[in-house]
Write a structure and sequence with these properties.
By secondary structure, the chain is of the alpha+beta class. Helix content is 33%, strand content 32%. The chain contains 4 helices and 4 strands.
């Protein structure tokens, strides 16, 4: 099953703090490994009015997704509020 993870910068953090932090801290090996192994199929930083990140993760459960994401340093350090939603492809038989 696929899950969309939406990490939004917490209100007490500023965009400038976030940019300094990601410039100073390369993406951790744990994150690259999730990408390399196909667990994370899509990923990116949110650069609009609500800075943060989004990833699409293939997993068995929301609990597994939260466990994976919680190990990433910026998440572990409390930079983001997280939303985790299961997603499916559009289907013509649903309308």
């Amino acid at each position: 099953m696929k899950f969309l993870v939406n990490g939004t910068l917490r209100s007490e953090k500023t965009r400038e703090d976030f940019l300094r932090e990601i410039d100073a801290r390369p993406m951790p090996n744990e994150a690259w490994e999730l990408i390399r192994t196909g667990v994370v199929s899509e990923h990116g930083y949110k650069i609009g009015a609500r800075p943060g990140f989004v990833v699409v993760i293939e997993s068995e459960s929301e609990e597994d997704v939260r466990a994976l994401i919680s190990k990433l340093p910026l998440v572990e350090l409390g930079w983001f509020d997280l939303e985790v939603d299961p997603v499916s492809p559009f289907r013509s038989d649903l309308h």
